[in-house]
Amino acid sequence: MRRDFAIDQIAQPEAGKVLFGAAGLTFMANKRGNPNWGRPRQPASVLGTEFDLQVRQLRLAPENYVASTSLRKWCEENKNHIPEWLLKAWNMSVNSDLTGAA
Question: Whose CA, among 31, 35, 39, 99, lies 20 to 30 Å from 3?
Answer without folding.
Answer: 31
